Amino acid sequence: MATEYRIITLIHNVQPNPEGAYDPIEWDQDKGIAEILSSGYQPVQITTTSGEKGAITLTILFSRETKSVAPASSSQEQSTIDRFTQKAERGY
To answer: What percent of the chain has pLDDT over 70?
Structure first.
């Protein structure tokens, strides 16, 4: 059994560089993503979708195996995920 979480980040006004490629984006959420990875979660799917006015939604699906006798997530893990969801809803 796997426990899955999604982090959705809206990135506004993304423009390609002069070569036509997109520059890497530094997220303020990097530290939190490192915490998730160090807790045993692995990204299993990354998708992007384009929205209005060049907004891009990046969805990262994290998963880790859980034991049937253990709770699906601890309150600390859920708090971390909730914090990311709140940031995503605010658009940063």
So the answer is: 28
Domains in the chain: boundaries: 2-90
Between CA 68 and CA 65 the distance in angstroms is 10
What size, in residues, is the chain?
A: 92
pTM: 0.38
pLDDT band at 29 (very low <50, low <70, confident <90, very high): low
Q: How far is CA 81 from CA 2, 53, 73, in A?
A: 16, 27, 10
CATH number of 2-90: 3.30.70
Q: At residue 30, what is the residue type?
A: D
